[in-house]
Amino acid sequence: MKTEREFNDLFGTVKPIIGMVHLRPLPGSAPYENGGLDPVIDQALKEAKTLLDNGVNGLNIENYFDLSYSPDTAPAETVASMAIVAHEIRRAHPDAVLGVCVLADPIASLAVANAINAQFVRATFFTEASVDVSGLVIRRPHEILRYRKFLNPSIKIFADVHIKHSAPLAQRPIEESAYDAAYFLADAVIISGKHTGFATNIEDVKKVRKVLPNFPVLIGSGINEESVDSMFQYATGAFAGTTLKKDGKTDNLVDASRVRAFIETVKKIRAGL
């Protein structure tokens, strides 16, 4: 199993914040309204710069607005578009810590991550069969791990447990699921709320921390200035998306002033450790 120290070394700090770059609809998705990739790239570059310039420690590039996404294997046009957009972000920020999340296909995420020299992927499904809003998801970690070994063993896998907008096919305590994800060689586990932007249940984080005392445990949704202090008593770091958007609404653009305010709160927490 990986340690929190190794995780912190990747981001160069304790309690790292990973900012979400939510891509506008990509070609082939239901909400896509033509126009090519240029508008998607322009907005992604603008938001990536705003996040990094104002203190986040890494970025996760995700096709969030591709509603509804494929529950198992992402289509070719999505993977191609993700690679192009993510490559432009990497070119603009050659030294940034980048992650890729092709919903909901960790193998496609690994392929894009390798192409753009990203350091990690967010695997929204890694272990366990789940009932997702898009259908039945049956992940096979042995296939994901073997593909990573073949392609690029250095890419980290941050694995969601009981991911939002879904439920495990067989209900199990979240701490058991998290332990198994770590046992099956995930590099971090992610605990989220029920939906994007919804608060993560701190009791879930406590349960997972108890069984994984020195393993990276990340907050996957809903963190904000009010909750980050209590969450960081147990969590190693966090993904931040909605709270960094204008008015704290997921569909809005990233707001530089909200990013700065949130990061200042996090810096105070780090200083007190």
Protein described:
The structure is a single chain. By secondary structure, the chain is of the alpha/beta class. It has one domain (4-271): Alpha-Beta Barrel (TIM Barrel). Helices cover 38% and strands 17% of the residues. The protein has helices at 4-11, 38-53, 76-92, 106-116, 141-151, 174-183, 202-211, 228-231, 256-271; strands at 17-22, 58-62, 98-101, 120-123, 129-132, 135-138, 156-161, 166-168, 188-191, 217-219, 237-240. Strands 1-2-3-4-7-9-10-11 form an 8-stranded parallel barrel, surrounded by 6 helices. Helix 2 links the parallel strand 1 (17-22) and strand 2. The mean pLDDT is 95.
Roughly how many Å is the radius of gyration?
Answer: 17 Å
The name of the CATH architecture is: Alpha-Beta Barrel
In CATH terms, what is the fold-level topology? TIM Barrel
Low-confidence runs: none
SSE sequence, one letter per element: HEHEHEHEEEHEEHEHEHEH
User: Structural class of the helices, strands and pairings?
Assistant: alpha/beta
Q: On the 0-100 scale, what is the average pLDDT?
A: 95
CATH homology-level superfamily: Aldolase class I
State the shape.
Answer: globular
Strand order of the largest sheet: 1-2-3-4-7-9-10-11
Number of strands: 11
Question: How are the SSEs placed, and which strands pair?
Answer:
Elements: H1 4-11, E1 17-22, H2 38-53, E2 58-62, H3 76-92, E3 98-101, H4 106-116, E4 120-123, E5 129-132, E6 135-138, H5 141-151, E7 156-161, E8 166-168, H6 174-183, E9 188-191, H7 202-211, E10 217-219, H8 228-231, E11 237-240, H9 256-271
